[in-house]
Write a structure and sequence with these properties.
- The complex is a heterotrimer.
- Chain A is of the alpha/beta class.
- Chain A has helices at 40-47, 88-98, 104-113, 127-139, 157-168, 184-187, 208-215, 219-227; strands at 2-11, 14-24, 29-33, 55-60, 63-64, 73-76, 145-149, 176-180, 193-198, 201-207.
- Chain A has a 6-stranded mixed beta sheet with strand order 6-7-8-3-9-10, with helices on both faces. A 4-stranded antiparallel beta sheet of chain A has the order 2-1-4-5, covered by helices on one side.
- The longest helix of chain A has 13 residues, at 127-139.
- Chain A starts with a strand and ends with a helix.
- Chain B has 2 domains: 1-110, Winged helix-like DNA-binding domain superfamily/Winged helix DNA-binding domain (Arc Repressor Mutant, subunit A), CATH 1.10.10; 111-145.
- Helices cover 52% and strands 3% of the residues of chain B.
- Chain B is built from 5 helices and 2 strands; from the N terminus they run αααββαα.
- In chain C, α1 (2-52) packs parallel to α6 (117-152) and α4 (73-96) packs antiparallel against α6 (117-152).
- Classes of the chains: A alpha/beta, B mainly alpha, C mainly alpha.
- Chains in contact: A-B, A-C.
- Chains A and C meet through α2 of A and α1 and α5 of C.
Chain lengths: 229, 145, 277
């Protein structure tokens, strides 16, 4: 389980995260929902140690985060993070070199699934292809958790469908997924838990099926309620 | 085991629990004859991929169906639709009952004698059946594709 | 250790085309300069012979590679200056290229399971490697230049040269390729310290952004002042100062060591705890 407790982070004078607490369980798909600038990406970066955090705790499986999480948590960012001059195959080799949890077979399988050509240069990829490649890099390792930052943003429809299929497949079975997205429509019926961010805090944190059966509300319904308060 | 043929057409609404909608879909398929008694159904994983739902949801719907005795899992073999006639009849009755309830409450507002209503229903029904011959329950008999 | 080497390999590999270009350019410019110089000299002698009918040896001193190097200093210095400029710029870019642009490699580097200090040392030693490769290459070019010179110059008019003398004939090389190890240590030591202070400043900026620029400049400025303090305050030539020469040197060394340690520590600390994408 990934757990945030009272996390505060300052950015340009204001507190982007202001006492944020929530959990994302292994085996579940948790979605962070929030308006632009609500701090969703910051949460991901904070968990990954890519930005320092002013206050609060970030625990993974009960222990404070540290360098050790990098074999347990994979990150799928919303933009390219590999050198543009590298070929996709070289990028895979790079990951294999550094990560003990790297699964080369799954990587090859994913490249096939997404129909990616390994010899292509990363700099030449279209936005949709780059997003798929990022998914390969994030899903190939035998990690327990996968963080995805806006996996659908700016992607063409068919690529989006392919990416959505990932959430129903065995690729994420038994893993904990934490994602952020604007496209609630794409994932409404795919996610287990929703966390709605507002003013740097978790305004609501709920199990989606429970919300549907007990209150007959969809995630979007809840969002509307929260943002109109 | 049949793939396709009803598995991808499910549109989920966002206000009802998805797993219950899956169960309902199964019931509809059974009643429509697309799923036979004793027929093998996709595994939990396969179901997730076919319906494009979260594996947890597939899991939950499985559990629900097992509890309702819709499906039967013996040991390690793949799950099958129940062969228990009582259950199958109950499902049929349930869905029919729901459809009729919905119809009745809609038509109650119109003041019409029962005979006329039944005649209308009969002719409309026959019309509907004959204009979609690709459907399973073709008039006259069970022509299973 | 293995991760450090992998990162070092990657840093060198990314820069290889530029490095080869610098080497190629240096070789081309310098060797052509030597060749043209030799040919020019021969031409002068021929002209003299044609005009006076007398043997050139009577008027001209023998052709010497050392002199040729001295005469072509400017052309020799151009690629060297360019290489230095490129390396200085790359000392910045080796960090910034991972943050800016379409792809932020920093995300990957900072989430590798290996220690972050490996990144720091890989970048540091990569720059140092480039410097020493270029130095080594320059040294290699000297005897090659002499051979080219010898090939062009007629044997009877050629005077042999020592490479060491040839190197010394170039003002820039007096500093960059010094004769004694002590000089080498001092000159390049200064360069290394500057690099370390630069890295610390860059990491201050990457940790605190706008405020970081201020911190970075302040840190660099402070270190610079500290470095020159012994020379200024204690007497530039040590003869008028309070301390013995050896003591003054020791103080200078101590200050240098302090700056090295603090810069490296600061860089590593920032990279581990404070840096941000």
């Amino acid at each position: 389980m990934i757990e945030l407790k009272g996390v505060r982070k300052r950015y340009r004078g204001r507190y982007v995260l202001n006492g944020l607490s929530f959990t994302a369980d292994k085996g579940n798909i948790t979605c962070l929902i929030g308006m632009n600038g609500a701090g969703k990406s910051t949460v991901m970066k904070a968990i990954m140690g890519l930005v320092p955090v002013k206050e609060g705790q970030i625990l993974v499986d009960g222990k404070p985060r540290g360098r050790w999480i990098y074999e347990k948590i994979s990150f799928v960012p919303d933009h390219l993070t590999m050198p543009l001059s590298m070929k996709m195959s070289e990028g895979l080799t790079f990951m294999a070199d550094f990560y003990a949890s790297w699964n080369a077979e799954r990587a090859a399988e994913l490249m096939r699934f997404f129909r990616l050509e390994p010899s292509e240069k990363i700099g030449n990829l279209s936005k949709g292809t780059a997003a798929k490649y990022n998914l390969v890099l994030g899903l190939a390792p035998n990690s327990d958790y996968v963080l995805m930052d806006e996996p659908f943003s700016g992607i063409d429809l068919f690529s989006r469908e392919m990416i959505a299929d990932v959430f129903s497949s065995e690729l994420i079975e038994e893993r904990g997924v934490l994602l952020t997205t604007h496209e609630i429509g794409e994932v409404e019926h795919l996610i287990d838990k929703a966390v709605i961010l507002q003013d740097g805090k978790a305004e609501m944190e709920f199990d989606c099926e429970t919300m549907r059966s007990e209150e007959g509300k969809s995630i979007v319904d809840v969002m509307r309620e929260v943002y109109s308060r | 085991m049949r793939t396709g043929g009803g598995w991808e057409e499910v549109e989920f609404n966002s206000r009802e629990p998805v797993y219950l909608q899956v169960v309902r879909h199964f019931k509809e398929m059974i009643v429509a004859g697309k799923l036979e008694a004793g027929q093998v159904i996709p595994s939990r994983r396969e179901l997730g991929t076919l319906l494009k739902i979260n594996p947890n949801t597939a899991q939950r719907s499985y559990k629900e169906m097992e509890e309702r005795k819709l499906i039967v899992t013996e040991g390690n073999s793949p799950s099958r639709i129940t062969q228990d006639d009582a259950v199958l009849r109950a499902i049929r009755a349930e869905l029919l009952g729901e459809a009729v309830d919905a119809f009745v409450s809609a038509v109650r507002k119109v003041d019409v004698p029962v005979e006329e209503l039944l005649d209308l229903v009969k002719s409309k029904y026959i019309e509907a059946l004959s204009s979609s011959p690709a459907d399973d329950a073709v008039e006259g008999g069970a022509e299973r594709p | 250790m293995r991760n450090y080497l992998k990162l070092l390999h990657m840093e060198i590999h990314r820069f290889r085309y530029i490095l080869f270009a610098l080497m190629g350019m240096t070789a081309l410019v310098q060797m052509c300069a030597i060749a043209f110089n030799a040919m020019g000299e021969i031409n002068e002698r021929n002209v003299y012979f044609e005009q006076t009918g007398r043997a050139p040896e009577e008027f001209f001193a023998a052709m010497s590679y050392t002199r040729a190097v001295q005469e072509t200093q400017f052309w020799f210095a151009v690629p060297v200056g360019l290489s230095i400029a490129v390396l200085v710029i790359y000392a910045f870019l080796i960090w910034y290229r991972d943050w800016f642009g379409r792809s932020t490699f920093a995300y990957r580097l900072l989430s590798l399971p290996s220690e972050r200090r490996n990144i720091y040392f890989a970048k540091l030693t990569a720059i140092l490697t480039f410097v020493f490769v270029l130095i080594g290459f320059q040294l290699l070019l000297m005897p090659i230049g002499r051979a080219i010179f010898a090939m062009i110059a007629p044997a009877h008019q050629l005077q042999p040269s020592y490479i060491a003398d040839a190197i010394f004939a170039n003002q820039a090389f007096k500093i960059l390729l010094p004769r004694s190890f002590a000089e080498f240590f001092v000159n390049y030591g200064l360069g290394v310290i500057s690099l370390l202070v630069l890295f610390a400043s860059i990491l201050l900026e990457r940790s605190y952004r706008w405020l970081g620029i201020v911190y970075g400049l302040a840190y660099a400025g402070f270190c610079a002042l500290l470095m020159v303090y012994p020379m200024l305050a204690l007497g530039l030539d040590y003869s008028t100062g309070y301390f013995y020469t050896e003591e003054a040197y020791a103080i200078q060394m101590a200050i240098d060591a302090l700056i090295v340690v603090s810069s490296v520590w600061l860089g590593l600390y920032l990279l581990k705890k404070k840096v941000s994408v």
